[in-house]
Amino acid sequence: MKLPSAHVEQAAAKKVYEKEGVPLGTLAERVRHVVQAAFDGRRIVIFSGGAADTDETVFEQVRAIRDGGGFGSIIGRNSFQRRKPDALRFLKTVMDIYAGAKK
Amino acid sequence: MTTERVSEILSWYGSDNPGTLTNLARLLTHGALAGTGRLVILPVDQGFEHGPGRSFAMNAPAYDPRYHFELAIEAGCNAYAAPLGFLEAGAREFAGRVPLILKLSNHDVLLEERDPAQALTGSVGDAVRLGCVGIGFTIYPGSEHRLTMYGQLAPSPRRRRRTVSPWSCGRTRAARGSPRKARRRSTSRRTLATSPPSSAPTSSR
Q1: Are B189 and A77 an interchain contact pair (Cβ–Cβ within 8 Å)?
Q2: Alpha helices, DSSP H, located in chain B
Q3: How many helices (H) and strands (E) in chain A?
Q4: DSSP classification of residue A3
Q5: What Cα–Cα distance (Å) separates residue B194 from each residue in A16, A84, B69, B198?
């Protein structure tokens, strides 16, 4: 799914989140919540990037997915809309971040 | 490679038949992230959904469906996901080189729609024929057609030993307020939760 913003759409849900103090302040926290919501982490949840963006923006999102316990990314436009050598370098960095080989 | 982490993940899908689990294991044990429990998947449905020019003009080799197989293989992605025609155009040439996911449903953005629906553009039988490990299916929570989509997603693929990846493209009321904004949402929200849903009927075995 798309990485969640901090906006909670449903008033009824928002009330519960506030009352229970569900941490949603950082992207990694929101990823953690989504993963918990999917059978308490017992389902693979993969996040999507969206429109082509700068390298660092995407890497930052990938770190948040990794740190929040997300399982990975689908990366479409951010890979095939770059020249292939650039796309390969870019995807290698993403994979290194997930593998923990890169911070 | 099957690691402890891969075995742990497979154990969450205990109601699934061994054929489905084998396909899920292929996803988790392929590519640069094999065995880590993490996945990076190349999804390319934009040629269909946004149109070829808007999707590929900035990198013209990408008009060729075979380009995306090569990209996924060379990058070491866990899988490559695309609609029927795009997969058919390379499935034979690249057979066995990268796990494939057939995206079974598609939508386009020719109209500004508040409540997207979609066409079924492939079948689970096609996924079997092309050697795919699983199918992808978009749902649009928040669209007035969402319940139809949920119903279409539930029953069939596991009967044919395929993993199911709901692609959840949420539509908020705020987005639905203006067709323009809604359209933007529809093109930017994509999801892949690779999961044979536990709620699917057990008769699938």
Answers
A1: no
A2: 4-11, 18-28, 46-49, 52-56, 65-75, 84-88, 124-129, 146-153, 173-177, 179-188
A3: 5, 2
A4: P
A5: 28, 27, 20, 12
Option in A44, A79, A83 nearest B9 (CB): A44
> Contacts of residue A85 in chain B, CB cutoff 8 Å?
none
Find the helix packing angle between B4-11 and B18-28, rounded to 10°: 140
Per-residue model confidence as pLDDT tens digits over A57-66: 999 999 999 9
**CB within 8 Å: B192 and A50:** no
pLDDT tens, residue by residue, A13-39: 999 999 999 999 999 999 999 999 999
pTM as predicted? 0.88
| B17/A38: higher pLDDT | A38
Least CB–CB distance from A46: residue in B170, B189, B192:
B192
Chain pair A-B, CB pairs under 8 angstroms: 133
Look at A99 and B38 and tell me if their CB atoms are within 8 Å: yes
